[in-house]
Amino acid sequence: MLCSIYKSSKKEGTYLYVPKRDDFSQVPDTLLQMFGKPIFVMLVNLENRQLALVDVDKVKASMDEQGFFLQLPPPPENLLEKYKQDRDRAKSSQSDDEPS
Fold first, then answer.
1. Residue 86's pLDDT is what?
2. Structurally, how many domains does the chain consist of?
3. What CATH number does residue 60 fall under?
4. φ, ψ for residue 87 (rounded to 5)?
5. pLDDT for 73-96, tens place per residue?
6. Helix, strand, coil: what percent of the chain each, to 5?
């Protein structure tokens, strides 16, 4: 299955996959307005291929069912939460090391 991949001119890290180059007829107008002008990135054959951030099977299923696939950027890392987890992990390993 071939698909064309476009990046958003408005939303960084957001990509739109469509089955035919420059055919956005299946993409809702409201989505296209939020997406901005699609910037062509590449043409990809999804057969026997892995993608970096999304599951190829989900892309194929969405394109079959909806006529497009929208890839959103991963959520930003919560640095405060990561710090708390690391701190708690360090505390628990210190208490495990103390003699009873």
1. 87
2. 1
3. 3.10.510.20
4. -65, -45
5. 887 778 888 888 888 888 887 766
6. 35, 20, 45
